[in-house]
Amino acid sequence: MTTVEPLEPVDVVVRHEFCGPLLWSNRRHAFFLPKEAGENALVTRAVERKSAGQEWDDGSLPAGLADDLRELGLDGRVREIRSPYQDRLSGPLEIYFDYTWLCNLARHKCGQDSFCYAAEFLGPTTMREQRVRELMAELAQWGVMRVHLAGGEPTINKRALANYLDSASEQGLYTSMATNGLLIDDDTLDIILRNGLKSVSFSIDGASEETFGAVRGPGLFDKVVAALRHTVRRKRETGSDMRVCVKPTYTPSTPYSELEALVELGIDAGADVVKFANPERCLHHEQGFYSQQVDEYYAAIEYIGTLQKTYGSQISITNVSNPMAGCGDIGIPGLSGCIGGQELIALNPDGSVTPCLMHPRKLGNIDDQFTGLRDFWNGSTQLTDFWKALEKPEGCSGCDIYSSCRSGSTTRRIVQIGRFDPERSTGDFSAVKDPLCTRDYLARHPEKKLPEPPADDLTALRHFREIAVRHSL
Questions:
Q1: What is the DSSP letter of 121?
Q2: What pLDDT shows up at residue 216?
Q3: pTM of the entire structure?
Q4: Averaged pLDDT for residues 213-232
Q5: How large is the C-alpha radius of gyration of the chain?
Q6: Which residues contact 243 (CB under 8 A, 6 or more apart)?
Q7: Distance between the two ends of the chain, CA-based, in angstroms?
Q8: d(CA 285, CA 115)
């Protein structure tokens, strides 16, 4: 077996991109760009001085900018990556990277099948451990610093899970994981906790045996909640700052009492976050489906906002990335269309690459067609064709909240037209807006208003904006 050597650990990775110096801070575990384009050159020169062994803070920087760079880690170790492109990113910022389609619930055909495209592929396909390690090294060299693991069920094979998480942390990558929780035990938690994950999210789609069982199958609810509680206990015992999350998938018709009960379950179990950022969206519907639930969709967003106010002192609650939830700007300034396939991509166990986990459009295969992820990014005509389709549709022209929406969900746009490809893995969406368009909703409901901007975050940087790699949902 070929040994994959880890990169030297650094405090900051600087990607010199078309949009300016894109900084990954290992101290803040996030990407940042200068807020003002006029400061791009100042930051770039400071980084270049640092790399040349000179004093990066030579007195020419505004005091606040120097303070921010110090906070991000420029006073520590730095690695630079230079982009060959003037009009696009040299690579994504984050990746959904699933190493297996094995799932302990596959034979049950849980209710998630209705909107989980991976359910169509669940089976033995699992990426070789050496290949996983090679790809983690490539991601680090490429400057793709955030990794999300789901599946399949990632805890189904302890050795493979350890290989995945250990290799990610060895390469300095920051990882999150989703699990159904049924296979969580102390050995699995040892693997998770030694690797400093950002979060572990439990897929709990109902707050009782009845509602959970309707989605995941009968007799499982108590086991999952017990695993959630045990994970919280182990986290506290080890002093880990990993966030333990409850992550339901829900629809606008989910009873509000059920949403509140999920929050109360999270509080009672000691979880850190309840993630309501994952409303159902997929291609398994007939034409126009989502346009029939617009008001209910926005009412659910508003209700989750009331839950945030009611329970926010006890637990963090995330809402949908939508202007009506005050989500702020999405992704890299200057890019249009969904982040899927741009700031984020999904890599599957068979080597295929798709825009995200909910849009299974095949963009290429790194094993059959390319030598790796960067070769795919630089050479896939399917990817460049997808970028062309992401160009802003005419209906989005002149929108003053576009940066918080980016034309919405490609899957909902495909369903709106109903022009699916033969495999129903993608379809036409280039000429249509998201049927849940916020601007259209506000035009129909002039009594509704966008929320006020949140109060200033005292931990925020004055000269840099954090890049939020979030789907518009």
A1: T
A2: 87
A3: 0.95
A4: 95
A5: 22
A6: 198, 199, 200, 272, 273
A7: 43
A8: 9
